[in-house]
Design a protein that fits this description.
heterodimer; A: alpha+beta; Phosphatase 2c, domain 1; five-stranded antiparallel beta sheet; globular; B: alpha/beta; 4 domains; six-stranded mixed beta sheet; 20 strands
Chain lengths: 274, 778
């Protein structure tokens, strides 16, 4: 009897220890989350360039492997939505790396076109992760859609690493396809990213997003949400106020997910061109 | 006077160099491959001065050497002062004054003797003109004399003919008279009854008498003619006698001249036999014969002068008589005029006199110029030039200001002190020239001692000799124990010092074959410094194929020497001066290429236009590769400086040569500095002007940055690592060889392993090449 008590006490002690450690970790991650959040652009910062916008940001865990980023330089606004390999802590660490590198690039290298920013970002990531193209090394990196918006000329540059850009103009979704390669080393030798120039029109709506939304399992058949429904959804909501759009996207997501667990971090950024 | 230019003909491999001007700053370098004929040029110049050549100097076609040198004239009256004893043809002095230079020409004869002539095209034309006037006068005189003789001949012939005719008429008269007599006799024999016959005879008689009268008249006329002609003969006889005497005198003179030539030929022939005689006996026999021939020759020389004087005088006298002077007056006048003495300088006389005033040409040769260990004092004082080290030892004494008297000092202690002081002075001076470290303390002294041979040299026992030492703190060594480099430099220094310290120093042209061949690179550069140091007093002409003996900023100092047919040692030597250096072959110019640091075999070197100066070899390789890939502009000649800091040197050089160029530089601190320096020093701080010629690759710290990082990794580094920094920074930070990467890249392009770049690289390269195209000449 005494032995059983001892055993229970031991188990309780271990449970408490685990709870303590878990709480410590959660506290630590929550704190990390604060840091991560503080690295993301503030709402007013985005509002200043694009008064009508939304960001739907739903980390799977406390910290996220997804991040969005925006910096203004003169008449140009640089913004991006990215998804780092992995989620949780490893993804978060990678995202911090990505944010730092992007800040460094636009600070030190003036007037680089979007694709060259991605080229350079890839160099930085590869160097940071000591990637050499050796087939045995981990293929860590990130996918990203990066835009540069020239406020005066109303011209947008887009370059994408596996992430497309949707622009909804009137009743049409214009899809800008990304280069099929990540920021980081991959199976094939690095190629330069492609730059796209888009002449924007007033009320064009831009959507940048990670693949968490479309990859979410759910619905009655437990399948992925997929791109086509996502595109249709965006087309449906594009004329709505940005806040409403965000709400519809969130509700649609929750509804789709239902009882399924969130597969990945979710990030959708919507911007209405003034 | 200063040597300005030279022209060499028919000297070893040289057929005709044409005129080549020496560098105006007194240092002229002859560059070229071995066997190109560089040394022949030095030898030819040396032979110009001393007149000596050897048989092997002659070309196989036996055309005789001629070396011409042009000298500056320091002031208007310099030549007039030298040539003041006699007259010069009209205009010669004025021409020399106008040219501010005078040309001398040494011509060799087949017996290897030579003569110096005053040269120069215009001056020679004036002499020719003068000679023509003199010759015309001589011809006129000759013609007059011949006409006298011809006249005499004609008059005598006419007289002879008239006399013959007169005699013929006389005969005819006699015949006519006989006919008259015969008819008279026949008439007397006829009686009265033959009245008719008589009548007939009487008619015949009358006709015959008429004829006689006719012939008498004719005879009378002819006799008068004969008498007149006889008078003419008498008249011309006196004049012709003097003309004949003149002719006779010339025949004698010419005969002596012929004999003299013949005897001279025999003499040189005997000399040759003597030189090659196999035995002493043979030599003695030849000597004996030679003495006899020599006597005859000397006598002929005297006779020649006398005969010449006589011939010239007689000719003039005959002419004067022909012109109407009575013989006595003509003779008196001729004696007074002294026609055998030319009042004008010949080119030979003028040349020889001017020759005495030109700078001394000295060939610095190793054998006699290197300081020996020891040399007999007698050999020095007696001028025994064949002694090893003679020249260096002489130079030493000259520099030290010593002569025979110095060594006569009987007090050995005083002599020793004197020697010690001299040793010290020499050393101090030497250190100024010699920058090399020798021994631990970089200090050497030259010592010399006066010693006497002891019993170990029985043949010389008691004779004085000089012994030389080169000392540093560690060692005391004979010159020959020192390195050849030290010994060369030391001797070279003595030569220069001696040249300058000479009392009646009239300038010197120092000819040096491959100076400092035994010196290492830095010491060779010291040689160049010494040249700079002395160039105000001594003109230096040296041969070299060492890049260390070339000042890249002063390429105007160079003459390139090469064979007409590349690599053919039997072909003619040709010389290119600084302005046409580009016509010389790459091999000839290799020292310059070395200085410029480019790959010789691939270098197109400097062209008249479309030269593109690049910072260095790395740039050269990349730009050559880009050029090959782009295929434009059609004409672009990339010139690599050894370093960005040398770009300005190249710019100055090309500007100096009047060659078109542009410059491409990057925005590295050094590149920017070069840009700013050029702007300030070459383009008068004018931004527009410099932009026309200098392309600043804005935004690029190095040529490597023209590549996108991806292309740089893919085509140059062949790695997939991440390079966030600029390509140029990466190469520098990782201590990679820029040049090697660049040359490998060029190789890949040449092997067609790379055919295109990404858009970023393409744009960068195209922008730079577009800027180049805009600035190049069409």
């Amino acid at each position: 009897m005494a032995k059983r008590d001892e055993l229970r006490e031991e188990m309780e002690r271990q449970r408490d220890e685990i709870i303590r450690q878990r709480n410590e970790i959660i506290q630590s991650i929550q704190y990390a989350s604060l840091i991560q959040t503080s690295l993301l652009p503030q709402k007013k910062q985005i509002d200043k360039v694009f008064p009508r916008n939304f960001v739907l940001y739903l980390p799977k865990n406390i910290v996220s492997g997804d991040f969005y980023w925006m910096v203004s330089r003169g008449r140009k606004a640089y913004f991006a939505v990215a998804d780092c390999t992995g989620h949780g802590v490893p993804g978060a660490l990678m995202s911090i790396l990505g944010i730092s590198f992007l800040n460094e690039i636009v600070t030190l290298r003036v007037n680089l076109p979007a694709n060259r920013i991605l080229n350079l970002l890839r160099e930085m990531v590869m160097k940071a992760l000591h990637q050499t193209g050796d087939s045995t090394e981990a293929l860590d990196g990130m996918d990203i859609s990066l835009c540069i918006y020239d406020q005066e000329k109303n011209i947008l540059q887009y370059a994408g690493a596996n992430h497309p850009l949707y622009i909804i103009r009137g009743d049409v979704v214009i899809e800008y396809k990304p280069d099929r390669m990540p920021i980081g080393v991959s199976g094939i030798e690095e190629q330069p990213f492609t730059n796209r120039y888009v002449e924007l029109k007033k009320n064009d709506t831009l959507y940048l997003f990670t693949d968490g939304y479309v990859d979410q399992f759910g619905g009655s058949e437990g399948r992925k949400f997929k791109f086509d429904p996502f595109r249709s959804l965006l087309l449906k909501i594009a004329r709505l106020p940005m806040k409403t759009q965000k709400k519809v996207l969130l509700e649609t997501f929750e509804e789709w997910k239902g009882e399924y667990i969130q597969v990945d971090d979710i990030l959708v950024m919507g911007i209405k061109i003034p | 006077m200063k040597l300005l230019a030279f022209r060499i003909r028919n000297f070893r491999s040289i057929i005709d160099t044409g005129w080549h001007t020496l560098s105006s700053d007194n240092i002229t370098g002859l560059i070229g491959q071995n066997e190109s004929g560089k040394t022949s040029i030095l030898e030819a110049l040396n032979s110009f001065y001393d007149g000596k050549i050897s048989e092997d100097t002659l070309r196989s076609d036996l055309s005789m050497p001629v070396v011409s040198c042009l000298f500056s004239v320091d002031h208007d009256n310099e030549i007039a002062d030298i040539l003041k004893e006699k007259l010069l043809p009209a205009g010669v002095i004025e021409q020399i004054r106008a040219d501010k230079s005078v040309s001398l020409e040494r011509q060799w004869n087949e017996d290897l003797s030579s003569r110096i002539l005053l040269g120069g095209e215009k001056v020679m034309a004036l002499f020719d003109q003068h000679d023509e006037v003199v010759a015309a006068k001589d011809a006129r005189i000759e013609e007059a004399i011949n006409s006298v003789l011809q006249k005499k001949k004609d008059v005598i012939a006419s007289f002879q003919q008239a006399e013959n005719e007169r005699l013929a008429i006389e005969t005819r008269l006699n015949d006519a008279k006989a006919t008259v007599n015969e008819i008279s006799r026949a008439l007397k024999a006829k009686g009265k009854k033959d009245a008719e016959e008589k009548k007939k005879l009487q008619n015949q008689l009358a006709a015959s008498k008429n004829k006689v009268n006719e012939i008498k008249n004719l005879l009378n006329e002819k006799s008068q003619e004969v008498q007149k002609l006889n008078k003419d003969v008498q008249a011309v006889a006196e004049e012709a006698r003097y003309a004949e005497m003149s002719k006779e005198a010339w025949r004698e003179f010419e005969a002596i001249q012929r004999e003299q030539n013949e005897v001279f030929g025999r003499l040189t022939n005997l000399q040759r036999l003597y030189d090659h005689a196999l035995s002493e006996k043979e030599r003695r026999a030849i000597q004996l014969e030679m003495d006899g021939v020599n006597d005859r020759y000397m006598k002929l020389l005297k006779e020649y002068e006398q005969a010449r004087e006589r011939a010239i005088k007689r000719r003039l006298m005959a002419y004067k008589i022909h012109e109407g002077l009575p013989p006595a007056a003509a003779e008196k006048e001729t004696e007074r005029e002294k026609p055998h003495i030319n009042p004008f300088y010949t080119r030979l006389e003028a040349g020889s006199l001017i020759m005495e005033h030109i700078p001394e040409f000295v060939m610095f040769e190793d054998f006699s110029s290197l300081l020996p260990n020891r040399i007999d004092l007698d050999d020095i004082l007696n001028g025994n030039a064949a002694t090893e080290g003679y020249k260096a030892a002489r130079n030493f004494l000259e520099v030290a200001g010593l002569n025979e008297a110095f060594f006569r000092e009987s007090n050995s202690r005083i002599l020793k002190q004197k020697i010690e002081k001299l040793n010290r002075d020499l050393t101090v001076d030497f250190q100024d020239f010699w920058q090399q470290r020798i021994g631990r303390h970089n200090k050497i002294t030259i010592n010399f001692e006066l010693e006497h041979y002891d019993h170990t040299h029985p043949d010389k026992s008691g004779f004085p000799y000089l012994e030389f030492w080169v000392k540093d703190r560690q060692e005391r060594l004979y010159p020959k124990q020192r390195s050849r480099g030290v010994r060369w430099f030391l001797s070279f220094y003595l030569e220069l010092k001696a040249a300058i310290s000479h009392k009646d120093f009239k300038g010197k042209v120092l000819l040096i074959d491959e100076p400092g061949l035994s010196l290492h690179a830095r010491a060779q550069e010291d040689v160049l410094k010494v040249f700079e140091h002395i160039k105000d007093k001594v003109q230096v002409i040296y041969t070299t194929h060492s890049p260390h003996l070339i000042d890249i900023k002063k390429l105007y100092r160079l003459l390139a020497v090469q064979r007409n047919i590349h690599n053919d040692e039997n072909s003619e030597t040709e010389v290119f001066d600084a302005k046409s250096l580009t016509s010389a072959t790459a091999d000839t110019l290799s020292p310059i290429y070395t200085l410029m640091g480019s790959r010789l075999s691939e270098q197109q070197f400097i062209q008249k236009k479309n030269n593109i100066i690049l910072e260095d070899l790395t740039n050269y390789y990349y730009f050559s590769a880009f050029h090959a890939l782009l295929g434009y502009p059609p004409e672009a000649f990339f010139l690599p400086a050894t370093d960005v800091s040398n770009v300005q040197t190249l710019v100055n050089l090309l500007m100096g040569w009047g060659l078109e160029f542009i410059v491409v530089t990057d925005e590295s601190p050094e590149g920017l500095k070069t840009y700013q320096d050029l702007k300030k020093s070459v383009y008068g701080n004018d931004d527009n002007k410099i932009r026309e010629k200098v392309i600043l690759m804005e935004g690029f710290q190095g040529v490597e940055d023209l590549f996108s990082t991806l292309d740089f990794k893919k085509h140059v580094l062949h790695q997939r690592i991440g390079i966030p920094e600029s390509n140029s920074d990466y190469v520098r930070d990782n201590k990679l060889s820029r040049t090697l990467l660049a040359s490998d890249f060029l190789k890949s392009i040449q092997e067609m392993k790379i055919t295109d770049f990404d858009e970023e690289t393409r744009e960068n390269i195209e922008n730079v090449f577009q800027a180049i195209v805009e600035r190049l000449q069409p």
